[in-house]
Amino acid sequence: MKYASVWVCILTFYNLQSSSLAAIVPPPWSDPNKNPCASEPGGWQLLYWAPLKKCFKIFQLGYPCPDTMELSPVGVGHTSTGSTAECRCPPGTAQSPLSKKCHTLFERGPCDFGQYFAPIADSEVKSAIPKQRWGICKTTEICETGMVHWPKDNKCYQLYTKGPCPKGKLISLDNNGIARCKCENDGELSNYFHEETESCHEFFTKGPCLRSGELFLPSKKCACHQRLPHFHNETNLCYELGTIGPCPIGHSFIIADKRGQQEVTSMKAECRCKENYVKWKDGYCYKLYTQGPCEPGSFVMNSNECMKNPCEKGRLYFPHEKTCYRIGSQGPCSLHQVVIFDFTTRPSLDGISYNGICGCSGVIHNLDQSCTEDDVPKSACDSTPDMVEISKQCYKLYTRGPCGPGQWLEAKKVPTKIRAAMCVCRPGYTPYEAPLQNGVIGCQPPSIGLARYLNSIHLRNSKAENLTLGSF
Length: 472
Prior knowledge:
Layout: H1 4-19, E1 46-49, E2 54-57, E3 70-73, E4 85-88, E5 93-95, E6 102-104, E7 115-120, E8 134-139, E9 147-150, E10 155-158, E11 170-173, E12 179-182, E13 193-194, E14 199-200, E15 215-216, E16 222-223, E17 231-232, E18 237-238, E19 251-255, E20 269-273, E21 277-279, E22 285-287, E23 298-302, E24 305-308, E25 315-318, E26 323-326, E27 337-341, H2 347-350, E28 356-360, H3 379-382, E29 387-390, E30 393-396, E31 407-412, E32 420-425, E33 430-431, E34 443-444, H4 446-470
Antiparallel strand pairs: 1-2, 3-4, 5-6, 7-8, 9-10, 11-12, 13-14, 15-16, 17-18, 19-20, 21-22, 23-24, 25-26, 27-28, 29-30, 31-32, 33-34
């Protein structure tokens, strides 16, 4: 019955929405001519089940339906007569053509180990019930080392990161080898467990911290230290890397590439204009080819110049060609690509972008359509802030990504325009003295280094004490 309350909320919302137009519009099954149960007390919650000639509560799970199905109003297009009800799978579930039962989507269900139960198109299975939800077993995709496949969006995410999970949970694997959003004070997840809130968070993020300027550290405490790259000297507070932090509008709090000038452990984050943004005279950063501080009908061309939009309605500007092309046309794009809006621009924050890019035609209509052959836009990763492409996979800067234990991805400059990164030890971590037995190279946390330091002091003191006793 856990889904019944969901349906009641949907019905309530439906009625409230209708009342904003005129009076409350009753649901179709409240008509006594169609539903004999409607004339009974509370009849709007009852459905007539013709085979038994009885009334049953709406969205009731099980009898008179099969165990895993619920009693639902007849859907549009149902050809049966004499009934206002039918048996359907509850929301979040689908019916297996093999077992004929409803199973929760994106879980193992009736599938083999390493598989998950996924929805399939109605056209793939013939059903006597219109618009019935059907599912099928699919094998979990194999991702790179340290990454896990998330069935709901068919993407790979770094293990033990927030990924697609809600706040307080990290992506992990269940006993069936399927990705789950979990938080446990046991196993690997215990390393990220915050006892006071009983939630799990990535290190060096705001996480469960309530006080301003504190981050969730590997000690599993909320704190801020001057040694961290996240420390901001002017405010004496710590901020997440890649966020706006203490910076003005259009900036990002990041570690500037100063390799060769100072050691990694002494590098500090600072306010820099986000990529494809330029700093204006007012001290703020604005995205190129948006209106920014310019007059209506103009856009930011560079750090001190506005340009009047030369494009007609329905066309977008391509800076390299200095020409406008119609949206949806091939324009300067390669085969199988068309001119589309710059989807990396957020109109609510950046304003409308006059910049055009090449992409798949399905993007225009918000369809999940891929470009054919090798024509996927090269900017798919590079155009996303604080992301870098490694081995055809996107990773966020200053997270572990494909790196070893105790490491994270740090941006580095290369002669080309392609964004690049390298694996380095996290602040305070030190490199392994030698690779592990499985060949893994990484960095050890400060706690291990401190323990070794204390042990060395204890050893020296013990030797000194033995020498002193031996002199008597």
